[in-house]
Amino acid sequence: MVQRNTDVTAQVHGSHDSAACTMLEVLDRVSGKWAIGILLATAHGPVRFMELERTVKGISRRMLTLTLRNLERDGLLVRTVYPTVPPKVEYTATDIALELYESLTSLTSWAGRHRAAIAAARDAYDRSAE
Fold first, then answer.
1. Residue 78 predicted with pLDDT over 60
2. Which helix (H) or strand (E) holds 105?
3. Do 101 and 39 form a contact (C-beta atoms < 8 A)?
4. What pLDDT digit, counting tens, does each position of 5-55 carry?
5. Where are the domains of the chain?
6. What fold does the segment set 16-129 form as a domain?
7. Which residues does 25 contact at the CB level (< 8 Å), separation at least 6?
8. Which pLDDT tens digit goes with each residue over 26-40?
9. pLDDT score at 90
10. Where do the DSSP E strands lie in 5-76?
11. Is the pTM of this model over 0.85?
């Protein structure tokens, strides 16, 4: 019998504990490069799809759509559709996303402060591996 890819988390952890799976899925989702950019952009107020497309450099329209849906599903974004022609759609960070934003800004500050030290460590490692 062939197991489906959706069972990978259960296979790795040996159980179908939904709480653990949800935690792992959410951590995986919010640690992605696209999700971080979207969460940082929406933390300052409602943002339209096209604004996100311009703000999150390198993201395809399809990947932006998928990431927005997943973040909305996880309760990190609220999607508001206004009945206009053409329809106006805005994405807003929820309270739990704003709490996450604080952690993300701390992480990006840490990366900025230690960028030179990490680059030096990489250079030293690469030289010793030659």
1. yes
2. helix 95-129
3. yes
4. 444 444 444 455 566 667 788 788 888 889 999 999 999 999 999 999 999
5. 16-129
6. Arc Repressor Mutant, subunit A (1.10.10)
7. 9
8. 788 888 889 999 999
9. 96
10. 47-48
11. no
